[in-house]
Amino acid sequence: MERQENLEEFEKFENLPEEIDLPEDSAESEESEDDPQAQDELQDLQNKYLRLAAEYDNFRKRTAKERETLVTESRNFAVMQLLPVLDNLERAAAQTCTDEAYSQGISMIVRQWLEALEKLGITAIAALNMPFDPNLHNAVMHGEDDSLPENTIAAEFQRGYISGDRVIRPSMVKVVN
Q1: Distance between CA atoms of 57 and 51, rounded to whole angstroms?
Q2: Contact 151, 136 (CB under 8 A)
Q3: For residues 167 and 135, what is the distance between their CA atoms, to the nearest angstrom?
Q4: Maximal C-alpha separation, the chain
Q5: CATH no. for residue 132?
Q6: Is residue 147 included in any domain, yes or no?
């Protein structure tokens, strides 16, 4: 529906004349300067032109902002769909393995994933030993530990990610006290 409105606004600009015809005869221009009706008409046309120029500028800014939002949302959606693959690779890297080359290869893949996410502007949310923030963390367990301050994250079960100020996926954590 919003795209239809944008198209309708854009069509207003397609029907504008390329140039405005001005009188070339100086005698006519002197007459029009004295004619209050012509002055009112000229002022009206100037106002219409200014309003139309302002509408076009607003349309251009709005569509640029919509395009930027669409790109960001699409990127975040794609990354959200791929995060479970990264989680599984991190679990595989954490397992003990007798083949050192295999274990090192999995670790390199995880590093490459994290570097690629960083290039996209997506970073991991710091969780372990941090104060609990319900905007960034999802508490799935609660425990007691006198060595840590109240509402501190003692364990991270699933890493969370953030893009700018938008949370793509909250961290799944255990909170103590």
Answers
A1: 10
A2: no
A3: 8
A4: 99
A5: 2.30.22.10
A6: yes
For the sheet with 161-163, list strands across it. Answer: 122-124, 161-163, 166-169
Is 167 buried (19+), middle (13-18) or exposed (0-12) by CB count in 10 A? middle
Across the chain, mean pLDDT equals 87
Q: How far apart are the first and last CA of the chain?
A: 50
**In the numeric block, which tokens belong to residue 90?**
């991190």
Domain limits for position 147:
124-177
Q: Which residue has the tokens 């975040």?
A: 76
Q: Is the CB of residue 173 less than 8 Å from the CB of residue 153? A: yes
Q: Which of 142, 124, 123 is nearest to 132 (CA)?
A: 142
Would you call 38 exposed, middle or buried from its count of C-beta atoms within 10 A (0-12, 13-18, 19+)?
middle
pTM for this structure? Answer: 0.67
Contacts of residue 117, defined as CB under 8 A and 6 or more positions apart, other chains included, come to 79, 86, 123, 161
pLDDT in tens, 14-57: 555 555 555 555 445 555 567 889 999 999 999 999 999 999 99
Residue 72 has what DSSP assignment?
H
- Rounded Cα distance between 113 and 85, Å, is 10
Report if residue 166 sits inside a domain.
yes
